[in-house]
Protein backbone atom coordinates (compact mmCIF):
# COMPACT_ATOMS: atom_id res chain seq x y z
CA UNK A 1 0.00 0.00 0.00
CA UNK A 2 1.39 3.44 -0.87
CA UNK A 3 1.60 6.06 1.85
CA UNK A 4 -0.62 9.08 1.33
CA UNK A 5 -0.12 12.60 2.58
CA UNK A 6 -3.55 14.18 2.76
CA UNK A 7 -4.19 17.84 3.51
CA UNK A 8 -7.52 18.27 5.22
CA UNK A 9 -8.89 21.84 5.10
CA UNK A 10 -11.44 23.15 7.58
CA UNK A 11 -12.53 26.63 8.60
CA UNK A 12 -16.18 26.86 9.60
CA UNK A 13 -18.02 25.02 12.38
CA UNK A 14 -19.65 22.27 10.28
CA UNK A 15 -16.35 21.48 8.55
CA UNK A 16 -14.58 20.99 11.85
CA UNK A 17 -17.34 18.60 12.89
CA UNK A 18 -17.03 16.75 9.55
CA UNK A 19 -13.27 16.43 10.01
CA UNK A 20 -14.00 14.38 13.11
CA UNK A 21 -15.59 11.62 10.98
CA UNK A 22 -12.62 11.53 8.61
CA UNK A 23 -10.05 11.64 11.45
CA UNK A 24 -11.80 8.78 13.23
CA UNK A 25 -11.89 6.65 10.06
CA UNK A 26 -8.20 7.32 9.42
CA UNK A 27 -7.29 6.26 12.96
CA UNK A 28 -9.45 3.13 12.78
CA UNK A 29 -8.65 1.88 9.29
CA UNK A 30 -5.73 3.71 7.66
CA UNK A 31 -3.43 4.75 10.46
CA UNK A 32 -0.37 3.35 8.71
CA UNK A 33 -1.36 4.43 5.22
CA UNK A 34 -2.58 8.02 5.56
CA UNK A 35 -0.85 10.99 7.13
CA UNK A 36 -3.41 13.71 7.75
CA UNK A 37 -2.27 17.32 7.88
CA UNK A 38 -5.04 19.49 9.24
CA UNK A 39 -5.26 23.08 8.05
CA UNK A 40 -7.65 25.47 9.82
CA UNK A 41 -8.22 28.65 7.84
CA UNK A 42 -9.45 30.48 10.94
CA UNK A 43 -12.73 31.46 9.26
CA UNK A 44 -14.39 30.58 12.56
CA UNK A 45 -12.33 31.50 15.59
CA UNK A 46 -14.63 31.98 18.61
CA UNK A 47 -14.11 29.19 21.10
CA UNK A 48 -17.76 28.02 20.71
CA UNK A 49 -17.44 27.85 16.91
CA UNK A 50 -14.05 26.19 16.79
CA UNK A 51 -11.98 25.03 19.80
CA UNK A 52 -14.85 23.24 21.56
CA UNK A 53 -15.17 20.81 18.69
CA UNK A 54 -11.50 19.83 18.67
CA UNK A 55 -11.70 19.03 22.36
CA UNK A 56 -15.05 17.27 22.34
CA UNK A 57 -14.87 15.35 19.06
CA UNK A 58 -11.32 14.04 19.42
CA UNK A 59 -9.95 15.95 16.46
CA UNK A 60 -6.22 16.47 16.51
CA UNK A 61 -4.98 20.04 16.81
CA UNK A 62 -4.56 21.80 13.45
CA UNK A 63 -1.05 21.54 12.04
CA UNK A 64 -1.56 25.01 10.57
CA UNK A 65 -3.95 27.81 11.49
CA UNK A 66 -4.11 30.67 9.02
CA UNK A 67 -6.09 32.84 11.47
CA UNK A 68 -7.79 34.75 8.64
CA UNK A 69 -10.77 35.78 10.79
CA UNK A 70 -13.84 37.58 9.48
CA UNK A 71 -13.84 39.85 6.42
CA UNK A 72 -15.83 40.51 3.27
CA UNK A 73 -16.04 37.49 0.94
CA UNK A 74 -13.26 38.49 -1.47
CA UNK A 75 -10.76 39.59 1.14
CA UNK A 76 -11.39 36.59 3.38
CA UNK A 77 -11.16 34.11 0.50
CA UNK A 78 -8.01 35.70 -0.93
CA UNK A 79 -6.22 35.59 2.43
CA UNK A 80 -7.08 31.91 2.67
CA UNK A 81 -5.87 31.18 -0.86
CA UNK A 82 -2.52 32.83 -0.13
CA UNK A 83 -2.05 30.92 3.10
CA UNK A 84 -3.14 27.56 1.68
CA UNK A 85 -0.91 28.00 -1.38
CA UNK A 86 2.17 28.45 0.83
CA UNK A 87 1.32 25.32 2.80
CA UNK A 88 0.72 23.24 -0.34
CA UNK A 89 4.05 24.29 -1.83
CA UNK A 90 5.82 23.37 1.39
CA UNK A 91 4.01 20.09 2.08
CA UNK A 92 3.51 18.74 -1.46
CA UNK A 93 0.55 16.54 -0.48
CA UNK A 94 -0.88 13.69 -2.56
CA UNK A 95 -4.34 15.24 -2.34
CA UNK A 96 -6.40 17.96 -0.68
CA UNK A 97 -9.65 17.15 1.09
CA UNK A 98 -12.44 19.74 1.26
CA UNK A 99 -15.91 19.79 2.78
CA UNK A 100 -19.08 21.55 1.79
CA UNK A 101 -19.50 25.04 0.48
CA UNK A 102 -17.86 27.70 2.61
CA UNK A 103 -15.28 30.28 1.62
CA UNK A 104 -12.67 27.93 3.12
CA UNK A 105 -13.81 25.23 0.66
CA UNK A 106 -13.51 27.56 -2.31
CA UNK A 107 -10.09 28.84 -1.23
CA UNK A 108 -8.80 25.29 -0.86
CA UNK A 109 -10.21 24.27 -4.25
CA UNK A 110 -8.65 27.20 -6.09
CA UNK A 111 -5.27 27.04 -4.38
CA UNK A 112 -4.93 23.27 -4.82
CA UNK A 113 -6.26 22.91 -8.35
CA UNK A 114 -4.05 25.69 -9.70
CA UNK A 115 -1.02 23.95 -8.26
CA UNK A 116 -2.28 20.66 -9.76
CA UNK A 117 -2.88 18.88 -6.47
CA UNK A 118 -5.94 16.59 -6.78
CA UNK A 119 -8.95 18.01 -4.95
CA UNK A 120 -11.31 15.65 -3.17
CA UNK A 121 -14.70 17.24 -2.53
CA UNK A 122 -16.97 15.84 0.15
CA UNK A 123 -20.60 17.00 -0.17
CA UNK A 124 -20.24 17.47 -3.91
CA UNK A 125 -23.19 18.17 -6.19
CA UNK A 126 -25.47 19.89 -3.73
CA UNK A 127 -27.32 22.76 -5.39
CA UNK A 128 -29.90 25.29 -4.26
CA UNK A 129 -30.15 26.78 -7.78
CA UNK A 130 -29.91 30.18 -6.11
CA UNK A 131 -26.69 31.90 -7.06
CA UNK A 132 -27.33 34.82 -4.73
CA UNK A 133 -26.20 32.46 -1.96
CA UNK A 134 -22.43 32.68 -1.49
CA UNK A 135 -22.45 28.94 -0.83
CA UNK A 136 -23.93 28.12 -4.26
CA UNK A 137 -21.03 29.82 -6.03
CA UNK A 138 -18.56 28.09 -3.72
CA UNK A 139 -20.13 24.69 -4.45
CA UNK A 140 -20.13 25.03 -8.22
CA UNK A 141 -16.57 26.29 -8.40
CA UNK A 142 -15.26 23.72 -5.93
CA UNK A 143 -16.93 20.83 -7.77
CA UNK A 144 -15.50 21.97 -11.08
CA UNK A 145 -11.98 22.09 -9.60
CA UNK A 146 -12.18 18.57 -8.16
CA UNK A 147 -10.83 15.17 -9.15
CA UNK A 148 -12.87 12.96 -6.81
CA UNK A 149 -16.38 14.14 -6.02
CA UNK A 150 -18.40 12.47 -3.29
CA UNK A 151 -22.10 13.28 -3.64
CA UNK A 152 -24.00 12.57 -0.42
CA UNK A 153 -27.41 12.07 -2.01
CA UNK A 154 -29.03 10.84 -5.18
CA UNK A 155 -30.15 14.40 -6.02
CA UNK A 156 -26.58 15.70 -5.64
CA UNK A 157 -25.22 12.92 -7.85
CA UNK A 158 -27.77 13.75 -10.55
CA UNK A 159 -26.90 17.44 -10.34
CA UNK A 160 -23.29 16.57 -11.17
CA UNK A 161 -24.36 14.55 -14.20
CA UNK A 162 -26.54 17.45 -15.33
CA UNK A 163 -23.47 19.68 -15.19
CA UNK A 164 -21.50 17.37 -17.46
CA UNK A 165 -19.72 15.07 -15.00
CA UNK A 166 -19.54 11.55 -16.48
CA UNK A 167 -20.19 8.56 -14.21
CA UNK A 168 -18.52 6.30 -16.83
CA UNK A 169 -15.06 7.93 -16.51
CA UNK A 170 -12.26 5.43 -15.91
CA UNK A 171 -8.88 5.85 -14.18
CA UNK A 172 -6.53 7.60 -14.05
CA UNK A 173 -8.72 10.35 -12.60
CA UNK A 174 -7.73 13.97 -13.05
CA UNK A 175 -9.38 17.36 -12.90
CA UNK A 176 -10.27 16.83 -16.57
CA UNK A 177 -11.37 13.24 -16.04
CA UNK A 178 -12.96 13.38 -12.60
CA UNK A 179 -14.66 10.54 -10.77
CA UNK A 180 -18.09 11.04 -9.21
CA UNK A 181 -19.47 8.83 -6.47
CA UNK A 182 -22.83 8.50 -4.78
CA UNK A 183 -21.85 7.89 -1.18
CA UNK A 184 -23.76 8.91 1.87
CA UNK A 185 -23.27 11.73 4.31
CA UNK A 186 -20.35 11.75 6.72
CA UNK A 187 -22.50 13.74 9.14
CA UNK A 188 -24.70 10.68 9.46
CA UNK A 189 -21.55 8.79 10.53
CA UNK A 190 -21.06 11.45 13.20
CA UNK A 191 -24.63 11.54 14.46
CA UNK A 192 -24.69 7.75 14.81
CA UNK A 193 -21.35 7.73 16.58
CA UNK A 194 -22.07 10.56 19.01
CA UNK A 195 -25.81 10.20 19.76
CA UNK A 196 -25.46 7.91 22.75
CA UNK A 197 -22.48 9.80 24.12
CA UNK A 198 -24.50 13.02 23.95
CA UNK A 199 -27.18 11.49 26.19
CA UNK A 200 -24.56 10.16 28.59
CA UNK A 201 -22.41 13.25 28.86
CA UNK A 202 -24.78 16.17 28.34
CA UNK A 203 -28.10 15.10 29.83
CA UNK A 204 -27.92 17.80 32.51
CA UNK A 205 -28.25 20.48 29.84
CA UNK A 206 -32.02 19.84 29.65
CA UNK A 207 -32.29 20.55 33.37
CA UNK A 208 -30.11 23.64 33.11
CA UNK A 209 -32.41 24.96 30.39
CA UNK A 210 -35.51 23.87 32.38
CA UNK A 211 -36.91 21.96 29.42
CA UNK A 212 -38.63 18.61 29.33
CA UNK A 213 -37.68 15.82 26.92
CA UNK A 214 -39.89 15.96 23.83
CA UNK A 215 -41.56 19.19 24.85
CA UNK A 216 -39.49 22.05 23.52
CA UNK A 217 -38.64 23.52 20.14
CA UNK A 218 -35.09 23.88 18.87
CA UNK A 219 -34.38 26.77 16.51
CA UNK A 220 -31.22 28.05 14.79
CA UNK A 221 -30.76 30.93 12.34
CA UNK A 222 -27.48 31.93 10.75
CA UNK A 223 -27.78 32.23 6.94
CA UNK A 224 -26.65 35.49 5.39
CA UNK A 225 -30.08 35.88 3.72
CA UNK A 226 -31.78 35.81 7.13
CA UNK A 227 -29.27 37.59 9.36
CA UNK A 228 -28.34 40.46 7.06
CA UNK A 229 -31.89 41.17 5.96
CA UNK A 230 -33.31 42.70 9.11
CA UNK A 231 -36.89 42.55 7.87
CA UNK A 232 -36.65 38.80 7.39
CA UNK A 233 -34.89 38.30 10.71
CA UNK A 234 -37.50 40.29 12.60
CA UNK A 235 -40.45 38.60 10.87
CA UNK A 236 -39.05 35.15 11.65
CA UNK A 237 -38.32 35.91 15.28
CA UNK A 238 -41.62 37.70 15.91
CA UNK A 239 -43.45 34.69 14.51
CA UNK A 240 -41.48 32.28 16.68
CA UNK A 241 -42.07 34.47 19.73
CA UNK A 242 -45.86 34.46 19.25
CA UNK A 243 -45.91 30.72 18.60
CA UNK A 244 -43.96 30.11 21.81
CA UNK A 245 -46.39 32.24 23.82
CA UNK A 246 -49.57 30.91 22.26
CA UNK A 247 -48.46 27.30 22.75
CA UNK A 248 -46.62 27.87 26.04
CA UNK A 249 -43.72 25.98 24.58
CA UNK A 250 -40.09 26.82 25.20
CA UNK A 251 -38.01 27.63 22.12
CA UNK A 252 -34.31 26.94 22.70
CA UNK A 253 -32.23 29.03 20.33
CA UNK A 254 -28.46 28.58 20.26
CA UNK A 255 -27.60 31.59 18.14
CA UNK A 256 -24.63 31.94 15.79
CA UNK A 257 -22.67 35.13 16.66
CA UNK A 258 -23.63 36.57 13.28
CA UNK A 259 -27.30 36.53 14.31
CA UNK A 260 -26.63 37.91 17.77
CA UNK A 261 -24.55 40.74 16.29
CA UNK A 262 -27.37 41.65 13.87
CA UNK A 263 -29.92 41.61 16.68
CA UNK A 264 -27.76 43.66 19.03
CA UNK A 265 -26.84 46.28 16.47
CA UNK A 266 -29.93 46.54 14.29
CA UNK A 267 -32.86 45.29 16.37
CA UNK A 268 -31.74 46.23 19.87
CA UNK A 269 -35.07 46.81 21.56
CA UNK A 270 -36.64 43.71 20.00
CA UNK A 271 -33.58 41.72 21.10
CA UNK A 272 -34.17 42.86 24.69
CA UNK A 273 -37.81 41.89 24.35
CA UNK A 274 -36.74 38.39 23.28
CA UNK A 275 -34.31 38.10 26.17
CA UNK A 276 -37.15 38.88 28.56
CA UNK A 277 -39.63 36.52 26.93
CA UNK A 278 -40.58 33.64 29.22
CA UNK A 279 -40.67 31.03 26.47
CA UNK A 280 -37.64 32.05 24.43
CA UNK A 281 -34.22 30.88 25.55
CA UNK A 282 -31.51 32.50 23.50
CA UNK A 283 -28.21 30.85 24.34
CA UNK A 284 -24.69 30.98 22.87
CA UNK A 285 -23.72 28.32 20.32
CA UNK A 286 -23.56 24.90 21.96
CA UNK A 287 -21.13 22.03 21.46
CA UNK A 288 -21.90 19.25 18.99
CA UNK A 289 -22.80 16.81 21.77
CA UNK A 290 -25.11 19.41 23.32
CA UNK A 291 -26.67 20.12 19.94
CA UNK A 292 -27.17 16.41 19.34
CA UNK A 293 -28.87 16.09 22.73
CA UNK A 294 -31.14 19.05 21.98
CA UNK A 295 -32.04 17.70 18.55
CA UNK A 296 -32.79 14.21 19.89
CA UNK A 297 -35.03 15.52 22.63
CA UNK A 298 -36.81 18.34 20.84
CA UNK A 299 -40.35 18.23 19.47
CA UNK A 300 -39.86 20.28 16.31
CA UNK A 301 -36.73 21.78 14.76
CA UNK A 302 -36.80 25.15 13.03
CA UNK A 303 -33.66 26.12 11.12
CA UNK A 304 -31.95 27.59 8.09
CA UNK A 305 -28.89 25.38 8.63
CA UNK A 306 -28.01 22.66 6.16
CA UNK A 307 -26.54 20.40 8.82
CA UNK A 308 -29.37 20.83 11.27
CA UNK A 309 -31.97 20.02 8.57
CA UNK A 310 -30.36 16.62 8.05
CA UNK A 311 -29.94 15.99 11.75
CA UNK A 312 -33.70 16.57 12.17
CA UNK A 313 -34.11 13.59 9.84
CA UNK A 314 -31.52 11.45 11.63
CA UNK A 315 -33.45 11.99 14.87
CA UNK A 316 -36.92 11.76 13.28
CA UNK A 317 -38.05 15.28 14.07
CA UNK A 318 -40.25 17.49 11.89
CA UNK A 319 -38.31 20.42 10.49
CA UNK A 320 -39.39 23.88 9.36
CA UNK A 321 -36.77 25.25 6.97
CA UNK A 322 -36.47 29.03 7.08
CA UNK A 323 -35.48 29.28 3.43
CA UNK A 324 -37.05 29.48 -0.03
CA UNK A 325 -35.16 26.41 -1.23
CA UNK A 326 -32.86 23.71 0.05
CA UNK A 327 -30.10 21.48 -1.26
CA UNK A 328 -31.49 18.55 0.76
CA UNK A 329 -34.63 18.16 -1.34
CA UNK A 330 -35.24 14.54 -0.34
CA UNK A 331 -36.30 15.87 3.07
CA UNK A 332 -38.93 18.09 1.48
CA UNK A 333 -40.14 15.31 -0.83
CA UNK A 334 -40.43 13.08 2.23
CA UNK A 335 -42.77 15.63 3.81
CA UNK A 336 -40.94 15.65 7.14
CA UNK A 337 -39.23 18.97 6.36
CA UNK A 338 -41.08 21.94 4.91
CA UNK A 339 -39.82 25.13 3.28
CA UNK A 340 -41.45 27.99 5.16
CA UNK A 341 -39.14 30.81 4.02
CA UNK A 342 -39.61 33.89 6.23
CA UNK A 343 -43.35 33.75 5.66
CA UNK A 344 -45.27 34.12 8.96
CA UNK A 345 -48.39 32.32 7.69
CA UNK A 346 -46.41 29.37 6.38
CA UNK A 347 -44.33 29.14 9.54
CA UNK A 348 -47.47 29.24 11.65
CA UNK A 349 -49.48 26.77 9.54
CA UNK A 350 -46.73 24.17 9.33
CA UNK A 351 -45.86 24.57 13.00
CA UNK A 352 -49.48 23.98 14.02
CA UNK A 353 -49.76 21.03 11.63
CA UNK A 354 -46.69 19.33 13.07
CA UNK A 355 -47.59 20.08 16.69
CA UNK A 356 -50.94 18.39 16.19
CA UNK A 357 -49.60 15.42 14.27
CA UNK A 358 -49.20 12.61 16.75
CA UNK A 359 -47.79 10.10 14.27
CA UNK A 360 -44.24 8.68 14.22
CA UNK A 361 -42.42 10.19 11.25
CA UNK A 362 -41.23 7.97 8.41
CA UNK A 363 -37.57 8.87 7.93
CA UNK A 364 -35.98 6.57 5.32
CA UNK A 365 -32.21 6.13 5.17
CA UNK A 366 -31.29 8.76 2.60
CA UNK A 367 -27.77 9.33 3.92
CA UNK A 368 -25.82 6.10 3.68
CA UNK A 369 -24.86 3.44 6.17
CA UNK A 370 -22.89 5.45 8.72
CA UNK A 371 -19.56 4.35 7.22
CA UNK A 372 -19.24 6.96 4.50
CA UNK A 373 -15.93 8.37 5.77
CA UNK A 374 -14.32 4.94 5.53
CA UNK A 375 -15.64 4.47 1.98
CA UNK A 376 -14.26 7.86 0.90
CA UNK A 377 -10.82 7.12 2.33
CA UNK A 378 -10.73 3.72 0.61
CA UNK A 379 -11.45 5.39 -2.73
CA UNK A 380 -8.70 7.95 -2.10
CA UNK A 381 -6.29 5.07 -1.42
CA UNK A 382 -7.35 3.41 -4.67
CA UNK A 383 -6.87 6.61 -6.66
CA UNK A 384 -3.34 6.88 -5.34
CA UNK A 385 -2.55 3.24 -6.05
CA UNK A 386 -3.66 3.31 -9.66
CA UNK A 387 -2.37 6.81 -10.36
C1 LIG B 1 -20.16 30.38 7.20
C2 LIG B 1 -20.42 29.82 5.81
C3 LIG B 1 -21.78 29.16 5.78
C4 LIG B 1 -21.92 28.12 6.87
C5 LIG B 1 -21.56 28.73 8.22
C6 LIG B 1 -21.52 27.67 9.26
C7 LIG B 1 -19.41 31.11 3.97
C8 LIG B 1 -19.66 32.06 2.88
N1 LIG B 1 -20.43 30.90 4.81
O1 LIG B 1 -21.15 31.38 7.44
O2 LIG B 1 -21.95 28.50 4.52
O3 LIG B 1 -23.24 27.67 6.90
O4 LIG B 1 -20.26 29.34 8.14
O5 LIG B 1 -21.68 28.17 10.53
O6 LIG B 1 -18.33 30.57 4.06
N2 LIG B 1 -18.27 35.55 13.51
C9 LIG B 1 -17.94 35.61 14.84
N3 LIG B 1 -17.09 34.66 15.33
C10 LIG B 1 -16.57 33.67 14.57
C11 LIG B 1 -16.89 33.64 13.20
C12 LIG B 1 -17.76 34.57 12.70
O7 LIG B 1 -18.40 36.48 15.57
O8 LIG B 1 -15.79 32.85 15.09
C13 LIG B 1 -19.20 36.56 12.99
C14 LIG B 1 -18.49 37.75 12.35
O9 LIG B 1 -19.23 38.89 12.60
C15 LIG B 1 -18.55 37.41 10.87
C16 LIG B 1 -19.89 36.70 10.76
O10 LIG B 1 -20.01 35.96 11.97
O11 LIG B 1 -18.49 38.53 10.05
C17 LIG B 1 -20.01 35.76 9.59
O12 LIG B 1 -18.95 34.79 9.60
P1 LIG B 1 -18.51 34.04 8.25
O13 LIG B 1 -17.53 32.99 8.56
O14 LIG B 1 -18.14 35.04 7.24
O15 LIG B 1 -19.85 33.39 7.74
P2 LIG B 1 -20.90 32.49 8.50
O16 LIG B 1 -22.19 33.24 8.56
O17 LIG B 1 -20.33 31.96 9.75
N1 LIG C 1 -24.15 22.96 15.64
C1 LIG C 1 -23.52 22.93 16.89
N2 LIG C 1 -23.83 23.91 17.79
C2 LIG C 1 -24.71 24.90 17.52
C3 LIG C 1 -25.34 24.92 16.25
C4 LIG C 1 -25.03 23.95 15.34
O1 LIG C 1 -22.72 22.03 17.16
O2 LIG C 1 -24.94 25.74 18.40
C5 LIG C 1 -23.81 21.92 14.67
C6 LIG C 1 -25.01 21.20 14.11
O3 LIG C 1 -25.38 20.11 14.94
C7 LIG C 1 -24.50 20.76 12.75
C8 LIG C 1 -23.55 21.86 12.35
O4 LIG C 1 -23.22 22.55 13.56
O5 LIG C 1 -23.78 19.55 12.82
C9 LIG C 1 -24.23 22.79 11.40
O6 LIG C 1 -23.51 23.93 11.26
P1 LIG C 1 -24.14 25.32 10.82
O7 LIG C 1 -25.58 25.33 11.12
O8 LIG C 1 -23.30 26.36 11.43
O9 LIG C 1 -23.83 25.36 9.26
P2 LIG C 1 -24.44 24.66 7.95
O10 LIG C 1 -24.63 23.23 8.20
O11 LIG C 1 -25.71 25.39 7.63
O12 LIG C 1 -23.41 24.97 6.93
Description:
With 387 residues, this protein is an alpha/beta fold. 48% of the residues lie in helices and 15% in strands. The chain contains 17 helices and 13 strands. The strands form two sheets. Strands 3-2-1-4-5-6-7 form a seven-stranded parallel β-sheet, with helices on both faces. A six-stranded parallel β-sheet has the order 10-9-8-11-12-13, with helices on both faces. Helix 5 links the parallel strand 5 and strand 6. Helix 3 crosses helix 4, helix 7 packs across helix 13 and helix 7 crosses helix 14. The radius of gyration is 21 Å and the shape is globular. 50% of the residues are buried. Bound molecules: uridine-diphosphate-N-acetylglucosamine and uridine-5'-diphosphate (UDP).
Task: Output the keywords.
387 residues, binds uridine-5'-diphosphate, alpha/beta, 13 strands, binds uridine-diphosphate-N-acetylglucosamine, 17 helices, seven-stranded parallel β-sheet, six-stranded parallel β-sheet
Order of helices and strands: EHEHEHEHEHEHEHHEHHEHHEHEHEHEHH
Helix content: 40-55%
- Ligands and ions found: uridine-diphosphate-N-acetylglucosamine, uridine-5'-diphosphate
Task: Report, as a whole number of angstroms, the end-to-end distance.
Answer: 13 Å
**Contiguous helical run count:** 17
Q: Give the beta-strand count.
A: 13
Largest sheet: 7 strands, parallel
Radius of gyration from CA coordinates: 21 Å
Shape, per Cα inertia axes: globular
**How much is the average pLDDT?**
97
